[in-house]
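To: structure subgroup
Subject: Chain for Friday's discussion

All,

I'm putting the inputs and outputs inline so they're searchable in the archive.
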Amino acid sequence: MITRFAKLSVPMAPPLPVAGGLLERELAFVEVDGCVAEVSPLPGLHQESLSEALDDLAAGTLRTPSARFAESVLRAQQDGESWTQRDATRSLPALNALVVGDEAGSDAHAVVKVKIGRDPSRDVSRVLSVLEQLPHCRLRLDGNRLLSLAQVLEVVSSLPHDRIEYVEEPLVDPSQLPELAKVVPVGLDESLHDPTASRHEDEPGAWVHVMKPTRLGSLEELADEITCAEKLQRDVVLTSCFESPWTLGVLCRVAQRYGLSRAQGLGTADLYEAWPAVDVTSSLPEVELPELDWQPWI
């Protein structure tokens, strides 16, 4: 039974690149017997609303992925799983930064994700500008299924291939991804969260599985997906649905638990400017469970 819960709305500046530009991020924290979890389905990505997810969690029906994720985080704390424990020697994974507009930001990250496809005519110039601003980084190009194969190949052909780590699910027609994989490594994202989509298991090329845990559901469902990727000898990157810095800390620990070696797609804490002081490159690894740095309970 939920002991306490808190709903809050965090202003987003700039707006998040979902749902036509999200100005506020609504989320909730729940507490059960001293254990804490976040519930924060993302409009435009999750099918359930925040209220629906909270009702689902409270009823124990767990039909929605964001409720299943929260329940599994609570249960992991209740069971004393090792990743929920304080450990000053814990080595957490590197993170990738996110570039949405024209400014590349800090050069603290060796890997950055760049959103492409929203204005295809400017993609090449934008990406080249990022490479110039961050001369030591490698790129993950995320197209969110907005582009044709020809458009993506135009971008890729304009860049030094040794600066591209992978291109993440950029095609309107995902059946053409194997053609793209002949040219550049491909990250699967949307396909992993659609049970009817192909994983292109028998196709050659380098493939990476980019997983959104709160869309997959419970931590057990995430573990199953990681096992499937390992059987295919494919690397795994965990990424967020713009959850709070607190849940980014959870996901960093989970990535460490599974020994995920690539930079994880969790470098978005700096989007929460109104959050208690969290520095994405130094303070995020210090986030501890199950305690919060603040108490917004109602």
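Points worth raising on Friday:
The first strand starts at residue 4 and ends at 16.
The two ends are 16 Å apart (CA to CA).

D.
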